[in-house]
Every structure is written in C-alpha cells, then in structure tokens.
C-alpha cells in the first residue's frame, strides 16, 4: 500500500519535496497539493499530474491523504500541525516548527493528543556522510566539530523575519551536535559578529558566529557559521572520541581533477542545499514513509523538533549577555 501525501506549500523547498515524493520515493504517492499562491500550486502540480485543492481544509478532508508534508513559511507551521493532527493525519513538518517555544509546545501537544506520527525536517541526519560519522565506533565522544557555511547570504527581507542566524541556520547544527554526540546540550556559549553585510546589524542579526556547546555526557561541540563562503556551501562534521575520530568532508560538484606543473585543481563544491543535500532529503522521505506504513515512531520526532530551538534561544541569550547560558 502506498502512503498518500498531501503537500502544503510548494515554494523553494516544497516544490522539491513534491517532486522527490512523486517521482523518487518508493511507497509514496502525492495525492494533493495546496499552496496559498494558487498559480504556484498549479505550476508544481501540473507536471506531476497531481490535483490541487483550494484550501487546507479540502486537502485534510481528502480520503486519499494519509499524511501531510508541511513546507510553508515557518510562521504557519504550528496552526497547520494542529489542523493536521486534529484531522488524524501523519505529519512531516519542515524545520523549525516555530520561532516561539510556546507555539512549538502547542503544536506538539496537539500531535501528542491525536497520537499521529510526526517527523521534523532535520534532513542533515540523513546525509550519508554525516550519518556515517554518527554511526562510527570512535568510543565515548569527547569533541565534535561542525563547520556550516552558506555560499551567499539570504535577502535582508528574509533575514529580518528568519529568527536570526541561530534559529534559521545554526538550528540544523544544533540538531547535528545532539545526533553525533548522542547527548543533550546543557551549556551554550555563543559569539557572533557582522563581517559580510551591515544589513545584518540593522536586522538585529549577525552573519558570522561561533558556538560552543557542552553536552550532558561531557562532550564539547564547536560550531562555526558564516553566511558567505566564497568557495561554496561548506558542510563538514567531525567527531573525536576515545577510540578514534570520524569526519565527513564536502562532496565535490564532480570527481574531476586537473594536474599541471603548477599543482592540482579539483571541482568546486555543490552550490547550496538543493544540490548538496538531495540524498538526505530522499532518505528522510524514505524514513517517514516507512514509519507511517509500518506504524513505527519516526526517528526524528517531537523532542528533536523542540530541543534545537531551546539551544538556539539560549545562543541568542548568550550572545546578548556575553556569557554562557545554562540549560541545566
Ligand atoms: N530542511 C531544509 O534544508 C530547509 C531548507 C529551506 C527551507 N526550509 C524550511 O522550509 C520552509 C519553507 O521555506 P521555503 O524556502 O521553501 O519558503 P518559500 O517562501 O520559498 O515557500 C513557501 C511557500 O508556502 C506558501 N504558503 C505560505 N503560507 C501558506 C499557507 N498558510 N498555506 C499554504 N501555503 C502557504 C507560499 O505561497 C510559498 O509558495 C521554512 O520553514 C524553512 O525554514 C528547510
């Protein structure tokens, strides 16, 4: 039996998800698409041969929708989760659930009350390289190092409503730190500055940051972020433990190398997440569809939706106050 999925919101990431679900995820069928911007819904649905609906309510009422993929802008996620849970649908929601903890708790309470499966879109756990780092037997983890640098800053209009670097960008790295260290975070120390575009200051944000985390098991994680790495999307994770270390390097855009008398040249990095992380998106969909089909709990669930936001809010507090913020 195929899991029928209604995709809500088909902008930048939702259009990719609709296509991956419709064409490249065995066991899934996209049965309905809805976007508040009707033309966009049609533009994505038509080539996939999927019917659109003219409201969220109509999508949730469709009998062939077993699960929803919520891929709308962040400020709409909590209400959509509540509506989908009340309709008894399994839920996949893009990260983050909300920029406000109270809203996250309201949405997750509705999921809990309805007893429906819930998966949050922390896709990087499903990246083959990062997953292999987390699975490597390096003994008790002592140190984790995460480098996460975007190729270019987003538009300032987006920055102003994004929740800032820690809730928009580093939130993926906070999830990765918990995943690789296999332990919750108890202390957060963040520093940040504006090195790329003064517009970030005007938006109350930073474009360059370092965060140190201390985990319950004693492991330390350091994360470094930049909104502009001129050489491309730089995504590396390393764990160092009692028995060794494991690291995931950046895949290159292609495997060509050029050797000359001057030295060796390799290809550039994939440009951004829609290129770099496709395997992770496919794997996260496969995990979600399997969980729904078999009635098992999704591996990245309710607690994982909440914990990185708590760390992100603590990072902002730490940056503002110039001292570590404890979550103990
Ligand atoms: N996991 C990742 O790698 C990743 C990457 C990018 C974005 N995201 C997350 O995905 C979400 C969407 O980001 P995006 O970049 O695709 O945004 P976007 O603005 O490109 O697309 C959002 C779409 O949702 C539609 N929409 C807005 N409100 C709606 C509503 N109430 N009902 C139906 N449709 C509605 C808009 O018309 C638009 O088409 C955000 O929460 C973002 O944080 C995750």
Task: Walk me through the structure.
With 328 residues, the chain is an alpha/beta fold. The protein folds into two domains: 3-116, Rossmann fold (3-Layer(aba) Sandwich), CATH 3.40.50.720; 125-274 and 308-326, Dihydrodipicolinate Reductase, domain 2. 40% of the residues lie in helices and 24% in strands. The protein contains 13 helices and 14 strands. Strands 11-10-6-9-8-7-14 form a seven-stranded mixed β-sheet. A five-stranded parallel β-sheet has the order 2-1-3-4-5, with helices on both faces. α5 runs antiparallel to α13 and α6 packs parallel to α9. The termini are far apart. The structure holds nicotinamide-adenine-dinucleotide (NAD). Residues 8-14, 34-37, 40, 56, 71-74, 76, 94-95, 121, 123, 273 line the site of nicotinamide-adenine-dinucleotide (NAD). Residues 8-14, 34-37, 40, 56, 71-74, 76, 94-95, 121, 123, 273 line the site of nicotinamide-adenine-dinucleotide.
Keywords:
globular; 328 residues; alpha/beta; binds nicotinamide-adenine-dinucleotide; Dihydrodipicolinate Reductase, domain 2
Q: Tell me the strand percentage band.
A: 15-25%
SS element count, helices = 13
Query: Cα distance, first to last residue?
Result: 45 Å
* Order of adjacent strands in the largest pleated sheet: 11-10-6-9-8-7-14
CATH superfamily of the largest domain: Dihydrodipicolinate Reductase, domain 2
CATH fold assignment of the largest domain: Dihydrodipicolinate Reductase, domain 2
Q: Architecture of the largest domain in CATH?
A: 2-Layer Sandwich
> What is the mean pLDDT?
97
- Helical residue percent? 25-40%
User: How many strands?
Assistant: 14
- Round the Cα radius of gyration to an integer and report it: 20 Å
